[in-house]
Structure formats: C-alpha cells, structure tokens
Amino acid sequence: MNEAPEKLDLFPYQYIGEQKKIEDLIRETVAGGVSAVIESGTGTGKTVVSMSGALQAVLGTDKKIVYLTRTKSQQKQIIHEAKAISRKRPIMCIGVQGRSMNTCPMMSKDPENAGGTSEELSRLCSEYKKDDGSGKPCKYYDNIGKMDMVDIIDYVRDSHPEPEVFSEYCLKRDICPYETVKHLIKYADVVAAPYSFIFMPHIRDRFLEWAGTPLSRMVMIVDEAHNLPDYLREVMTLEYSMRAMTLAENEALEWNDPVVHAGLTVTDIVAVLRECLDEALSEYLSGDDGMIPATFLQDELMDRLGMSSHSLNMIYKGLIDNGVMIADAKKAFQRSVQLRVETIAVPKIVEGPFLLSDHRNFWDEGYPALFLTDTAFYRNKNYHENTDTWDTLDYDRLVQVPVGLYHLILALDAAK
Ligand code: SF4
Question: What is the per-residue pLDDT across 210-265, written as a single tens digit (0 to 9) for each?
Fold first, then answer.
C-alpha cells in the first residue's frame, strides 16, 4: 500500500457520527489503490464523505474520480456536494448523460427522432455532424467550435450547474449540451455518470477517449452498489420470451409464413427456438435463476437445424442488413425535407399493395429495388379518377419529394 497522502481539509460541514473515520478510510483506500465496500444508511452523508475522502487522494495527481449512479437525481446530489466542497478548495465536477430531449436540441425539435433507440440517435448524430456537405449539418455542433472553451470551463467550475441547468446554458448559446460535456470531461476532477458509462464496454471505450484518462487512473465510486448485480444481469442478458415467439408466429402466418432460408419458414425457426428455450429451462434453471452459456443458442440452432455457423450468420446478417438499409434510406430521404416517412421491410412473397408499382419487375429479375409510395388510392380518393385535378394537390409537400429522392439516391450510391 502506498503511503497515505497528506490530509486535506475538504469536508464542508461539521462531522457527525462516524463521518471522519469513514473519510480517512476512503482516503487511505484510494491512495493504496485498493477497493472498499462500505455500507452506510440513508442520511449519513455518504456522498460528501466519499467524495471528500477520495479527493484528498486524487487532487494534485493525474487521477480523476468517476462517481457512478443509477439515477439522475443522485447526480444532482453529487454536484451539490461538489459545490459545497469547492468552498474549501475549488474543484470541477460535471454530470454526463446520454443523448436525450434534454441534451440534444436536434432531437427535441424533431419528435420523430425522440423515440429512437440510443444506437439510432447515435447514428443520426453522426450524420448531422458530417462535414462533407452531403446533408443538413447540426448547427449546435458547429457552434461549439466558435465558443471559447475556457469561458465554459470557468462557468462550470464556478457555478456547478446540474445537468438540466447546464443544458439551458448551452441552449442559450445555440451549442449542443451533449457534445459540450464531452469536451469538459477531461478538465473535471469529478465526473458524475450513469453506471452504463463504465459497465457497458462500447460506451466505456468512448467515455475513456473523451476523458483522455485510462481506466487505471480513474477512481470509481459506485453509488448504491448493491444494485450492481441486478443492473449487470439486466444489461448483459439477451432475452427472448414465449410471448415474443407467439407474436412472431402470428405475424408470420399473417404474411403467408415466408421462407427465410433453404426451405425453412419463419414458423419453422420459431418452433426450433421454442425447443431451445425448453432445453435451456430443463438444463440450466436452478430455483428461479440460471446462467445459460453464451454459445448455447447458436450451438442448439446449428444442431437442430443442421446448419453451419456460416448459414446462421447469413440469415442473421441478411435480416440486419435489410433493417439498416431501410433505416439509412429513410434518413437520407428526410435529410433536407420535413415529410413524415414510415418504412417497412416485407418479403417479396407478400401480394397486394406492396407490389403495385414498377419495382415489382426489378424484384422479379433479382435486382434490389426500393418502393416509395404516397399510398395512392388508399389515401387519395381522387387517384386515377377524373377528379384527380391540379387544384387537389399539395404543392408544398410535392416539391419536397424530388429533393428527398435526390439525397436518397446519393446515399444509395455512396453505400455501394
Ligand atoms: S451534435 Fe448534439 S444536437 Fe447535434 S445531433 Fe448530435 S447530440 Fe444532437
């Protein structure tokens, strides 16, 4: 264990109960590079004690404290205590959050984006940040480069804003709160972050990059650590339920149970998935719980379907590729127009409205083709009737279609 660092007078209140002892224990633990698990009841001041103890071992070194919380309200408490400690010695504390209506003004202005998953929002943001003139850039991102970062650092260091207050500060200056926080992390002594920023590997990698600090130089304080087993199980678990399989079967039957690979239909695959689930229950369930090996599903599917991992991956990749291609096409179309677009992937086997256009001939000959429709006679009672006259058309929307198509074609070409 390293020698204990010099004690600093950082605790901003009168000590009560065992606070001083716990603060010393944390200071020595952090300085020694070991871990401590501390149980402390509600109202015992554990946030301020752990922060002042850890800061004594960290200030003046190249280490950074990352205070991990499960809830946003706990982030506020951390920032509140950092502000109190700053009365003794100035420190910088910043709260980080994922993209949301609060942290991404582009999303708050476009309700359609707001319902996206974090992966979709991340892809959308990457598109908006492109500087190649191919689309509509994000002004909130561009404006960050025009700001003096020192002013923003001073503001955070002096005011200790809660995340919502910091977002308001950024919005008043037309800069993106999410991206601005990323720039500030490297200057902070304490970063208050959700569990996911460390415990989800793909988020952690980006977080470490923003912080410019390796994991070995970060001191983690995990708030409410008793939540960790449940949290980790939740985020590391892939889930498929009997209900989801029944829904998949019903949906497949509605669409004539399409063949997905080598004569196997969707319901054939679902039936095998049911068998796999039964097998997992009988093999691994002990009481209410069980740990299923990571390769279980793939091994079982290969056995039961008599397929190689390559064939399984082909099915999987085909489904993903279709989904991604459709999402990309929608995004490209909407890049500079305000039209609402709905997308759907349907197997060619489906008859009816999805085949009523020229793309059908391309599909018949094996060429990939997208079908764009305004839903024709399903929406417009004048379609192909004598009443289909110029004065019934919506020209404002009409002119947006070729603009959207232009961007869609560029995107498809670039993706070739
Ligand atoms: S840069 Fe910021 S405002 Fe722009 S899309 Fe990304 S998160 Fe949203």
Answer: 999 999 999 999 999 998 988 888 887 777 788 888 887 887 776 667 666 777 77
Chain segment 366-402, per-residue pLDDT in tens = 777 788 888 787 778 888 899 999 898 888 888 888 8
* Residue 343 CB contacts under 8 Å (≥ 6 apart), including other chains: 326, 327, 329, 330
CATH code of the domain in which 38 resides: 3.40.50.300
Question: What is the length of the chain?
Answer: 416
Task: Identify the three-state secondary structure at position 220.
Answer: strand
The number of domains in the chain is 3
Amino acid at 323: G
Q: How far is CA 389 from CA 36, 379, 380, 386, 411, in A?
A: 77, 15, 12, 7, 34
Instruction: Output the 3-class SS for 350-380.
Output: CCCHHHCCCHHHHHHCCCCCCCCCCCHHHCC
Ligand 1 cavity residues, CB under 6 Å: 99, 104-107, 125, 128-129, 138, 140-141, 176, 178-179
CA of residue 138 to ligand 1 center, whole Å? 6
99 alpha carbon – ligand 1 mean position (Å): 8
Distance CA 27, CA 48 (A): 13
CB of 3 within 8 A of CB of 32? no
Nearest atom, ligand 1, residue 177 CA: 2
Asked whether 218 and 62 are in contact (CB, 8 A), the reply is no
Ligand 1 atom closest to the Cα of residue 105 is 3
Does this model's pTM top 0.85? My answer is: no
Q: What ligand 1 atom has the least distance to the C-alpha of 103?
A: 7
Considering the domain architecture, whether residues 122 and 226 belong to the same structural domain is answered as: yes
Same domain? For 34 and 173 the reply is yes
Query: For the stretch 315-325, what's the b/e string if a residue is b when 16 or more beta carbons lie within 10 angstroms of its beta carbon?
Result: beeeeeeeeeb
Going by CA atoms, what residue is nearest to atom 7 of ligand 1? 104
